Amino acid sequence: MSRELRLRIISGIILAAIVLAATWYGGSGFRLLAAVIGLLVYYEWSTISDLHGRDPQGNALGWLGLVLIAGATALSESVYSIEVLAAFVAVTAIMVAIRGKSWWLPGGIFYSGLTAIALAEIRDDDFRGFVLMLFVFATVWATDIFAYFVGRAIGGPKLAPSISPGKTWSGAIGGAIAAVIAGTAVVWSFFSAEDLWIPLLALVLSVCSQIGDLFESFVKRKFGVKDSSHLIPGHGGVMDRVDGLIFACFAAFLLAIVITLTMSGETFSLGGVLLGV
């Protein structure tokens, strides 16, 4: 076993242990993890797109916004964090339009800030949030693992050759099927369900996960970088590890909001809304 592979395995085990422990604990522990992930994603996004060099004043404003969003997320102030996110995205977008600077600034604030908010709100502080978070992890991880192995085993037409030459349609389909099985197994092991909503939701999140993977590949290819950073030994950066998870969380979070807006009465947790329990 090479030194690089050994380092990759050790780092992967440590990361998985931290994430799963925080997921089990929930509460302030997981919210703090979500806040840190949001800050690290913005660091990598701003580094890749060279926001400091292109627009140092705008980047400083972006960091202020992310710090406020991360702080509100860690303190369970979800409404405030969403309001701050919307305000900073709007202000920086207006600044960019007036000053002719980089649109990667408001895009980075939105991408990073919503990452922290969505992760924290999906896990929430109840058992349904715990199951929903495990469900999201299962669909994303199954998608990644089986897309890789099925794609290598079967090959065939490329999914998006101009963005990520290694990805195939066979891998994408294999990953989606595995995600449906894994995600459904997680939810049905905790709650009884007779309809097809959970498998359908798993399929949607799998597709969004693969879109997120392709999106990060597009960003890195545009700026000519191989890894988003070198923060994780043997793995590259945080964005390299959570690209699919980010888009899956976006989809789950926004879908839950849409469903909630169609309801009347009490406020529901995301877990209760999406899992139907």
From TrEMBL:
The protein's matches in InterPro entries, at most eight in alphabetical order, are given as: PC_trans
PROSITE patterns to which the protein is assigned, alphabetical = CDS (PS01315)
State where it is primarily located.
membrane
Reaction(s) this enzyme catalyzes, per UniProt:
a 1,2-diacyl-sn-glycero-3-phosphate + CTP + H(+) = a CDP-1,2-diacyl-sn-glycerol + diphosphate
Q: Which domain of life is it from?
A: Bacteria
* GO molecular function terms attached to this record: nucleotidyltransferase activity
Pathway named in the protein's UniProt entry: Lipid metabolism; Phospholipid metabolism; CDP-diacylglycerol biosynthesis; CDP-diacylglycerol from sn-glycerol 3-phosphate: step 3/3
Q: What EC number(s) is this enzyme filed under?
A: 2.7.7.41
> Its membrane topology, per UniProt?
Multi-pass membrane protein
What stretches pass through the bilayer?
12-43, 63-96, 103-123, 129-150, 171-191, 197-215, 245-265
Subcellular location(s): the record lists:
Cell membrane
Give UniProt keywords alphabetically.
Cell membrane, Lipid biosynthesis, Lipid metabolism, Membrane, Nucleotidyltransferase, Phospholipid biosynthesis, Phospholipid metabolism, Transferase, Transmembrane, Transmembrane helix
**What family, per the record?**
Belongs to the CDS family.
* PANTHER family to which the protein is assigned, alphabetical: PHOSPHATIDATE CYTIDYLYLTRANSFERASE (PTHR46382)
Give the protein's recorded name. Answer: Phosphatidate cytidylyltransferase
